Structure formats: C-alpha cells, structure tokens
C-alpha cells in the first residue's frame, strides 16, 4: 500500500510539473510572438500620407504612358502642366465659358453644357503633395518641377478664371495688406501734423533729470 501510495504521489507531482512547464512554454511563445509582431507591425498611414502616395503613383504612371515614356529624373515643369490639364477630364467643378448665360453666377438655376474641370483648390493641394513627395524620393528642392514659377503662375490663372466664371469674388491678400499700410501711414501723417511746431527749439539742450 505504501508503495502504491508513493507511486501515486509521484505520478501526480509529475503531472503538476508537466502542466507548469506547458504553461510557461505557452507564455514564452506568446511573448516571443508579441515581440516579433511589434517591430514588423505595419503602422497605418495618415490620410494625407495615403493620398500623397496615390498621387505620386498616379503621376509616375502618367509619365510612363507618354510616348516615349518619361523618367522622373527627366521630368520638368512642362510635364507637370500637361498632367494638370490632363486631370481636367476627371474634374467635377462646372466652369462656365464666356458665352454661357450663367457666366459669373455662383448658383445657376439650370444645368448648362459647360465643361467640368478640376477645382483650383484641388490642384493647389495636389501640387503641394507632389512637391513634398518629389523631395522625399531624393529630388533636390532647387530642381523640384512642382515648385517651378510656371506652376504657380498656372495655378493663379486657374484660380482667377474660375472665380470669374463661377461668380466667386477673388481678393488678393497682398492688396489688402498694402491698403492697411497706407491707412496707417495716413494716420501717422495726421498725428504728426497735429503736433506743435517746435522748429525753434531744435538746438535747445535736453532737460536734465535728477
């Protein structure tokens, strides 16, 4: 009986040790799996970064479809301008022509056959993303075709033409600042004119403050 009891006790303790070992092994495996998952975990991109990647891929595909294909290293501002005009066919903004009866009306009462184009704000944001993506892919800021002056001129012309066609008032901030500066200068002149004339005291000694 004693021998059987000893055998039973030994068997139960052996089972307990085996269960503990299995539990420890499971914990170690879980920790290893968690440690391996953290470095390789894919961090979701922000909305801006995702859109910037899509825009960059779209522009690269546009260059490849040219005849002959154009590499990014040989891309210039002319290719960017052609790309912006190419995108107009996918636009959703109605831009009235000069001959349209709704030209200059912000809320036309009826539809018209005027073409749909890309809105100025969409093009401006697109150029900003592509300009950043170009430099992130090794391009130099000095040779960035998306920051060329011709691109800024084109965007300004699109903004002004769409503002007139859609009846949206367009105000230049620079003129507003200049007007404020002129008003301040006029106020300063008026204040100076109201000051007493002390021309005779220009050579008078300064008052001594004890």
From TrEMBL:
InterPro entries: ALOG (IPR040222), ALOG_dom (IPR006936). One of its GO terms (biological process) is response to light stimulus. Keywords: Developmental protein, DNA-binding, Nucleus, Transcription, Transcription regulation. Its main location: nucleus. GO terms for molecular function: DNA binding. GO terms for cellular component: nucleus. This is Protein LIGHT-DEPENDENT SHORT HYPOCOTYLS 10-like. It comes from Cucumis melo. The gene is 103503153.
């Amino acid at each position: 009986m004693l021998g059987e009891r000893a055998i039973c006790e030994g068997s139960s303790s052996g089972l307990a040790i085996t269960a503990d070992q299995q539990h420890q092994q499971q914990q170690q495996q879980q920790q290893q799996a968690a440690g391996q998952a953290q470095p390789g975990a894919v961090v979701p991109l922000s909305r801006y970064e995702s859109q910037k990647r899509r825009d960059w891929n779209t522009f690269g595909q546009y260059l490849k479809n040219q005849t002959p294909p154009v590499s990014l290293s040989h891309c210039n501002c002319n290719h960017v301008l052609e790309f912006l005009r190419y995108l107009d066919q996918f636009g959703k903004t109605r831009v009235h022509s000069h001959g349209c009866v709704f030209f200059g009306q912000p809320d036309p009462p009826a539809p018209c056959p005027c073409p749909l184009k890309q809105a100025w704000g969409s093009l401006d944001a697109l150029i900003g993303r592509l300009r950043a993506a170009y430099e992130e892919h090794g391009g130099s800021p000095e040779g960035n075709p998306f920051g060329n002056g011709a691109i800024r001129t084109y965007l300004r012309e699109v903004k002004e033409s769409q503002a007139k066609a859609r009846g949206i008032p367009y105000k230049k901030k620079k003129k507003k600042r200049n007007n404020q500066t002129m008003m301040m200068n006029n106020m300063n002149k008026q204040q100076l004119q109201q000051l007493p004339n002390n021309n005779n005291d220009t050579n008078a000694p300064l008052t001594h403050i004890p």
